Amino acid sequence: MAKKPARNNVAAENRKARFHYEIIDTLEAGLVLTGTEVKSLREGRATIAESYATEEGGEIWLINSNVPEYLQANRFNHEPKRRRKILVHAAQRNRLAGAVQRDGMTLVPLKIYFNEKGRAKLELAVARGKNAPDKRETMKERDWNRQKQRVLKEGGRD
C-alpha cells in the first residue's frame, strides 16, 4: 500500500500561548472525541485559543475548546463547547496535577493535530504565565530577530 503524501495535519493551534505563557514542558496526549468532532477537526475549523486543561476527579479535562458542529451530521451532531477528556498515563496525570497544585503552573493546549496513524492528538504544555515586562522583552527579541534577518537578506548593503 502506498504511503499517503505528507500534508498539514494541524487541526487547531493556540498561536498566542507562547507569548502569554513561559512553556516549561510539553506532552502529547490523546483526546476522547465523537465521530462528528473528528470530521469537524479534519476540516480545520476548531479553536483552542481560550481553552485550558484542568484535573478533576482523577482525570484531566480540556475546557472551553470550540469544535464547531459538522454540517452534514444532522441530529447526530455534538455540542461545540463541551468538555473533552484528555487521555494520559496515570504517572503523567499525577505529575501534571502536582505541577499545577504545587508550583502554580497552568495546563495550556498548544495544538490539536493528527499523527501518522490518523489519530487526533493534543500537545499540552505545562506553563507559567508571563507578566507585562516579560511580554515586552519577548516583543523586543522578536523585533530584533526580524531586523537581523532583514539585514542578512539584504547582504549588509546600506
Uncertain segments are: none
CATH class group: Mainly Beta
* Overall morphology: globular
Oligomer: single chain
Secondary structure tally: strands:
7
Radius of gyration (Å)? 19 Å
Helix content: 25-40%
**Main sheet summary:** 7 strands, antiparallel
Counting helices, strands and paired strands, the structural category is: alpha+beta
Strands of the widest sheet, in order across it, are 1-6-7-2-5-4-3
Mean pLDDT: 82
CATH architecture: Beta Barrel
The fraction of residues in strands falls at 25-35%
State the order of secondary-structure elements, H for helix, E for strand. EHEHEEEHEEH
Q: Gap between N and C termini, in Å?
A: 56 Å
> Quick one: CATH superfamily?
Small protein B
**Count of helical stretches:** 4
Q: How many domains in all?
A: 1
Pfam families: SmpB
GO molecular function: RNA binding
Main location: cytoplasm
GO biological process, one term: trans-translation
Explain how this protein is built:
With 158 residues, the chain is of the alpha+beta class. The chain has helices at residues 17-20, 35-42, 90-103, 132-154; strands at residues 10-13, 21-31, 52-56, 59-63, 84-87, 106-114, 120-129. The chain has a single domain, classed as Small Protein B, Chain: A (Beta Barrel). The chain has 4 helices and 7 strands; from the N terminus they run βαβαβββαββα. It has a 7-stranded antiparallel beta sheet. The longest helix has 23 residues, at 132-154. The protein starts with 9 loop residues before the first strand and ends with a helix. The model has no long low-confidence stretch (mean pLDDT 82).
